[in-house]
Amino acid sequence: MPRKQIHLAAHFPGVNNTTVWSDPKAGSHVEFSSFAHFAQTAERAKFDFLFLAEGLRLREQAGEIYDLDVVGRPDTFTILTALAAVTERLGLTGTINSTFNEPYEVARQFASLDHLSDGRAAWNVVTSWDAFTGENFRRGGFLPQDERYSRAKEFLTTASELFDSWHGDEIVADQASGTFLRDAQAGAFVHQGQHFDISGQFNVPRSPQGRPVIFQAGDSDEGREFAASSADAIFSRYSTLKEGRAFYTDVKGRLARHGRTSDQLLILPAATFVLGESDAEAAELAREVRRQQVSGATAIKHLEFVWNRDLSGYDPDGPLPEIDPDLGEHTIARGRAQVRMYRDPLATAREWRERAAANKWSIRDLVIETGNRQSFVGSPATVAETINDFVQADAADGFILVPHITPGGLDVFADTVVPLLQERGVYRTEYEGTTLRDHLGLSEPTAVEAGTRRAAS
Amino acid sequence: MSSSSLLPSSNSALHLAVALDGAGWHPAAWREQVSRPRELFTARYWTDLVQEAERGLLDFVTIEDGLGPQSAHFTEPDARTDQVRGRLDAVLIAARVAPLTRHIGLVPTVVATHTEPFHISKAIATLDYVSSGRAGLRVQVSARRNEAAHFGRRTFPALRIEDLDSPEAKELTGDLFDEASDYVEAVRRLWDSWEDDAEIRDVATGRFIDRDKLHYINFEGRRFSVKGPSITPRPPQGQPVVSALAHRSVPFQLVARSTDIGYVTPHDADQARAIVDEIRTAQAAAGRSDEPVHVFGDLVVFLDDDPAAAATRRERLDGLAGYTYAGDARIFTGTPVQLADLLQELQQSGLTGFRLRPAVVGHDLPAITQGLVPELQRRGAFRSAYEADTLRGLLGLARPANRYATATA
């Protein structure tokens, strides 16, 4: 049986405490030269794509802008399109939320990015909904949380109708006869639904990929179902073998219900890594990186996510608070998804106190040990083997690597691990195609399919 | 009032921009042999155009845009198949070209009526980063009912160009331009919402930023409010260059209150003088007398070494279009020498620069860069090398202080 080919992508390090900004090697996270270096490294390593996250309001804690992590990032569409000028094959994946945008504009931007990159655009659809973020936008916090997937789904459907409103053969541009368009109705669409009631003509011709590749990142039951129905790839955060296999089995198992096959949805967990000459050296380096990622101040702030209280009076090198978490509305940290990971704060606090007491951990030790553990730590040979084992065991189809240093943190992976994967025959040595769909092994949506969709709507 | 006191740079040198739109401004431009109508949606096409403009040392290019198909009709869509229809997002075209150019300013069109000031603020700030300080924007409003229907959030009354002075039309345009003014204000505050030195990377305290140097903008307008701060740090120019096209008093107010450059469409020197006076008066009334605001004259140009050739070309294209093309701006046909004469004459009326709209991009853009520019240089009226690294620098505009830093200093 042929061995599965590994997919690799890279996430530009951003606004969370994974990114070590205090290291002398850490450069700008905003200057274009940083993005260009990162993208060109990813392309040199034949990665499928570069991935950008999004933020639409700066995080706050206890009513003040959070100041301990990297803050600030460029606009997703603009930076990805600029990167298309300094790369040739690398896929360009942007996170764009479906709440504080409108389908016509987002579809134009993705179709434009796809044209301007010759078919390398991908969209990670996310579902921000909160009123906190809404304060930066025209409609404010208009969307109830329980409608966010319904809007996201309809947003994606509507955008697809816009992408498919051109079939690809409309532009004749015959200078002699004076026929520019075959059909005056090119781009015509009508969408009437719960969230969108729009009609008219889309004004970007069909792009090289037809539509951007669609990624999704939700982990709830609703999020998994959304991905199984509509996405080409799903991000997950399960980077242990056991959890990864469970997630993989669950999500791939949902595809048949939507008339899809298992190769139509790639599962790509986010993964961090620390490489050393030897496994021992890498382990030591990983411990140092974790200390850099979790300063005393950061540890206190992370504890506040669970406690939902001001804990600034506590000593990060001392024991955990005796006081229990505040179970009221979460007010301490705003603009942060991690907060929702702790669904039972009392149980989490109890478990953490017990673990800290048993191991004689301080607050900072506890935060270091419970979070921020790098996914892959070892020599290049060890990391290459581990990644390959995960993929061959169907715990993932590949990984989205998140280096902890901007922008040079990917270089060592490209230089040391990638050649080993290539030697094993589980990773490409050259791009086989030109578009992101080619890299991911996804077929292109055809004009016929598009026509059916339009006729059926 | 003397307009020259409002100007930052020597008044013998004029500023020159080109307005890029598809195959050119004449609706039949795409049918000329020199045009590349099948490439209008490619990066190479736009890169070639902007690089040609840069070879001509032009201050900047603008890139037209719209949230619906182009139309020969003033407010409604048409159903023509004999003209270019479809266009890519202008901000993204500018971003795609930015890394492949070094000096020329990039000024995409943004539609204030249907987009989010928060998104546009960070997009233009990012364009400023990827171009190392060469970004601007041209703010535009849209009263088109079909474009509103693409968003499904607002409806507008049906208007004809001859109804522009009706009370209904005046109310609508007043409302749209007020919103555009709010939009620019929100965008500008967002650019200032980070002080230049907000990023401190203070290892001793573990703080990446000094949060006291980030500011909520708390913009409250009739159509929207924006809390801030931006997620994108203050761009290299501090404030990228804001511009708007203006034909009448209401948009002149927007230029006077909100922009760094207004594009106007005088058909002769007297009109130019009257428009400049109106804008300068409005500028003073808005309390901006001491701030430089450029007023650029817009002209559609057919340029040939033989004046008869330019006139013949225009006639031929009108014939292909099936009607006499006449837009808002004066149409010039003639030689680069004649155009240089006209520009210098109009400049005497107080215009500080010109935005030329090539009738046929493939023909008239190189005629500008290779014909008009050398002619102006011979007269000492145009630069012979780029003298600044940023668009503000080329336009003689200082890098503005941050409004919030001043307020809290």
Protein topology:
The complex is a heterodimer of chains A (457) and B (409).
Chain A: E1 7-11, H1 32-44, E2 49-52, E3 60-61, E4 64-65, H2 76-83, E5 91-97, H3 103-116, E6 121-126, H4 131-134, H5 148-163, E7 171-174, E8 179-181, E9 188-192, E10 197-201, E11 213-216, H6 221-230, E12 233-236, H7 241-253, E13 266-271, E14 273-275, H8 279-293, H9 296-307, E15 333-334, H10 345-359, H11 363-370, E16 376-378, H12 380-392, E17 398-401, H13 411-423, H14 436-440, H15 447-456
Parallel strand pairs in A: 1-2, 1-17, 2-5, 5-6, 6-11, 11-12, 12-13, 13-17, 14-16
Antiparallel strand pairs in A: 3-4, 3-15, 7-8, 9-10
Chain B: E1 15-20, H1 43-55, E2 60-63, H2 90-97, E3 105-111, H3 117-130, E4 136-140, H4 145-151, H5 167-192, E5 199-202, E6 207-209, E7 219-220, E8 225-226, E9 241-245, H6 249-258, E10 261-264, H7 269-285, E11 294-303, H8 307-321, E12 330-334, H9 336-347, E13 353-358, H10 361-378, H11 391-394, H12 403-408
Parallel strand pairs in B: 1-2, 1-13, 2-3, 3-4, 4-9, 9-10, 10-11, 11-12, 11-13
Antiparallel strand pairs in B: 5-6, 7-8
Helix pairs in contact in B: 1-10, 3-5, 5-6, 6-7, 9-10
Give an overview of the whole structure.
The complex is a heterodimer of chains A (457) and B (409). Chain A is built from 15 helices and 17 strands. By secondary structure, chain A is of the alpha/beta class. The C terminus of chain A is likely disordered. With 409 residues, chain B is α/β, with parallel strands linked by helices. In chain B, strand 3, helix 3 and strand 4 form a beta-alpha-beta unit. In chain B, helix 5 runs parallel beside helix 6. The radius of gyration of chain B is 21 Å and the shape is globular. In chain B, 56% of the residues are buried. The N terminus of chain B is likely disordered. Chains A and B meet through strand 4, helix 2, helix 3, strand 8 and strand 10 of A and helix 2, helix 3, helix 4, strand 6 and strand 8 of B.
